[in-house]
């Protein structure tokens, strides 16, 4: 068995490609089951965010597994595989393990050290567990990665003052206008990204913001979190009216198709230019919107220049995080290697248990039925205790052996001495 990751990110593909391969949470179950139906895919977890789509898998054969997952991505994105390949990255075994650890720690994010990605790794693990995509290997790897991500944020300063996609969007806008606090601002959407937008806008002195959302209750929950900010709440039906009255519009919804495009924007009457800042993937703002002379449009890929200004000071923190991650990677590798001992240990325990039961049965028959019935539980516990104590130290030492060759020699010796027939080997 091998662990692999096949995917694409802001480093390998533009938003025009990423949005085609975005998998909404409602489609995760179906996608996991689809992938598990491939003959070489044993376990799978799907991470889909605005900046990445990554398929983590345990495969029987590496080459065939990579081919099957790549074909799946081509199918869901409706992109010919030959065209998609140039945007994909493929990582195998230790590289795949290291990548997930780095992702969890925020070292692979557009915004170095951003905190939201750890929650996204947790959600990937939760959904894959819920839909039976993960078994022993990926479950352990994701738990180790989550632990590593928390450890990096606790033991280094990489998360201190880290900007998010939302804060980078606000910083971008702040560089484009004279006084952000005087602008008429609206946000379409009321999720986590929108909450962060409100938070960062408020820090810039913006105190009057229009919120447009399909669910009024969701908007009201958002308003309760910011009593110091005047949030005007509007239903989705009033979206175009709100846009026409805004100087700046942020979009952050889960829509799978653009909600603002040339066609509907051209129908509104405006007396000023409108800046559209789209931080959603798939995009909420169509690429043709900027063809209108009163529209200035930005998307997540336009945030890279803003983010770059904040990266230099965080590189030293990232180096500290790398040291911690190497420890976490080594811990996972040692655990994985220890699985090699499982078949031999299980076989040995089964054989000794069979011997114990046979000898116990002989002893009880010699003691007589009356004595046996009265004391059987005590004798049973005694013999189990003896077996467990005899096996305990050898089993602990075998699992803990870090020298692979020494461990394999010990396994072979056990198999020879006890005449064990091992029916299953872990790869």
Features:
alpha/beta, 427 residues, 6-stranded parallel beta sheet, elongated, 53% helix, 4-stranded antiparallel beta sheet
Can you offer a commentary on this structure?
The protein has 427 residues and is α/β, with parallel strands linked by helices. 53% of the residues lie in helices and 14% in strands. The chain has 17 helices and ten strands. The chain has a six-stranded parallel β-sheet with strand order 7-6-5-8-9-10. Strands 2-3-1-4 form a four-stranded antiparallel β-sheet, sandwiched between helices. Strand 5 (185-188), helix 9 and strand 6 form a beta-alpha-beta unit. Helix 5 crosses helix 14 (315-338), helix 7 packs antiparallel against helix 14 (315-338) and helix 8 crosses helix 9 (192-203). The radius of gyration is 29 Å and the shape is elongated. 36% of the residues are buried.
Short description:
With 427 residues, this protein is α/β, with parallel strands linked by helices. The chain has 17 helices and ten strands.
